[in-house]
Amino acid sequence: MGVVPTVLVLPCPAQGHVNPLMILSQKLVEKGCNIIFVTPEFIHNKVVSSMGNQAGGDNGRSPIKLVSIPDGLGPDADRNNIILLFDSILKNMPAMLERLIEDLRLKDGVRVSCIVADFLMAWALEIARKIGIRGVLFYPSAAAMLALQCSIPKLIEDGIIDSDGLPTTKKRFQLSPSIPPMDTEIIWWAKISDSITEKMVFNISLQSMKTLESTEWCLCNSTPDLEPGALSFVPKLLPIGPLLRTYDHDQGVTERSLGQFWEEDFSCLNWLDQQPHGSVIYVAFGSTTLFDEKQFKELALGLELTNRPFLWVVRKDSDCSNKVCFPNEFKGNQGKIIEWAPQEKVLSHPAIACFISHCGWNSTLEGLSNGVPFLCWPYYADQFFDKKYICDEWKVGLGFDLDENGMISREEIKVKVDKLLSDENIRVKAREIKKKLMKDVDLGGRSSENLNKFINWLKE
Ligand code: UDP
């Protein structure tokens, strides 16, 4: 018997970071590793409660051990405040993590052999180095975004950003001939909320870049079929994507996905079964996007105007989840509204025609892997660049145009849905990309081989 590595996995505390690292953890388990999946308490509690009674026993599905450590904030602190949260994480979690590893060794006889840390939690690799275990980074967004980060010194030198990482003027630039041109609008760390938060995120990512220099591997959720230019620009990246969930079919379609912050509403799958093939507009904006009331109402009326069935995720925590926000004229007869979808299962359902998406990287990969065309509605951070990839590079979707008030009107929604669904070229392209991605992750495919390479290294 070979060595059974115990890997400590540390995501950044956000749904779009937890999901890919949970999928990676499940893949590592399938290949004979033990996983300690560490999140701050507030995330841990969400994950465990979304599992309902499946979370019983040893965290439901051993051998992934879900472990929480405090983030240092009080129970009522506003954890949506990124500055507050990250400041506290950086002050408190390193010592907690070190103690956890020590306790695992002394109390449970478990020796962690490697830490896999999200790029924004790169500080954890300092601990790995200190206690003499291995560490690798995981980059959760498009590789092009890391290529952009690697170019920070040059961007400063060329006067595109200032030393705080903020764009000086609106400019177009190109990192390499094989990476699509960018402009200052897509500098992700400058598209978050306010300049203080953006400077802080910029500084954290600068720190992570230093860590990157001294690590052997940086895993990423991508593949050369999607991003050949960006992946050759950052040779340290090991593409193992798209990371997709595998389900245990014996447990049926309602098997819950580990790592979700909200309970998935499986009733939508029965509803989808009753819709004609290729008819339903799936509408979901990820885990953090918030709508202003006016735009939310316009979206509701736009969906109605399409006269097509739609499945719309309106999260409990989005300001518009209560009925008051739906406009009076909105009947919603053709649609189904749910609070959280089993998204990968939805996207793979034959009834789905297209995906109105905020273009988060995970949603992008999930749509691509299922051959679903996109209507892009980016909100912040890297979503604007993902939209560029979808519309201009891979040509599997369309964007929306804003009206004179900076809104996406109901008419625009109808026009773009009709245009997308009558575009055969987009459908063909979407199917082609799906085929390539499935080949990448299948046995012997590039991403699957890269994952094996990583696992062999873990077992050395
Ligand atoms: N997701 C889900 N159900 C939903 C909406 C989203 O399971 O109703 C999942 C989705 O499959 C993806 C993640 O939440 O894995 C969102 O990540 P993404 O990068 O797309 O967006 P973010 O939430 O980071 O903005």
Automatic annotation (TrEMBL):
Keyword set includes Oxidoreductase: no
Entry-linked Pfam families: UDPGT (PF00201)
Keywords from the named record: Transferase
Gene Ontology MF: a single term: quercetin 3-O-glucosyltransferase activity
PROSITE patterns for this protein: EF_HAND_1
Family: Belongs to the UDP-glycosyltransferase family.
Name of the featured protein: EF-hand domain-containing protein
Lineage of producing organism: Eukaryota, Viridiplantae, Streptophyta, Embryophyta, Tracheophyta
